[in-house]
Give the backbone structure.
Amino acid sequence: MENFACCQLLPLILFSLQIWSTYFILPAHSSLDNFLYGGCSPIKYAPNSQFESNLNSLLTSLVNSATYSAYNKYTIMGSSPQDVVYGLYQCRADLAMPDCATCVARAVTHLSPLCPQTCGGAVQLEGCFVKYDNVSFVGVEDKTVAMKKCGPSDGYNADQMGRRDAVLAGLNGAGGAYRVGGSEDVQGVAQCVGDLSMGQCQDCLTEAIRRLKAECGGAVFGDMFLGKCYARYSTGGAHAYSRSNNHGSFHSESEKTFAIIIGLLAVVALVIIFLTFVRRCCGGNGK
């Protein structure tokens, strides 16, 4: 009877955890939470499997780490190779830690409805990127086009496009994984995921910038997201990529959210421990 009661409680506990994460951990939407793209593996995992438990542990670790670091990667080992889960997140480098933590928590909540019971998934929001898979991708360059978006053209403005090309050339020639530049009314930003070497990063950004110029032509803005890097530009204020101005009120809300996340991470950890106990009860029922 006790084993049966444990099993009956499991769906209720999982549902309650989902409600908590959706309505209490996360704040109202901001521009950093805007969904840009997502993708899923075609391979499914079994519900209540060791892989699912490992994935939950991985995602909890990603959210936890984002409270103090703009990038991190994790590997959760299993008793067999098919239970291993690899994952990482990357926040935009100009974000404060409360903003990063909020963005990663929001991205993680997108994964379950977007990629239900899949062995791999990725979500790119305006402010952060989260990815997991059962096959190691960490340190592997990926120049596959994940998303391309070109704005409208207001007629070819040679001076403006000249400044655009100069800004993109400056991004391509700059060092580091996060690069910003501007000239009058033109802004540009580029970033690699932190698992790439500097050589891999440069190779990825060179390709992203090449494609951006070739495929967006005279568009007022352009976004080119490859698997492990992106390059973006905006002219005439069509987009604002920097968080350096006019975001005091957002930080105020983010700092409150940051405190909530810290407190609730402890609750999530306790729930995971309890779920492990419940699974053992359910397992015992079958003996």
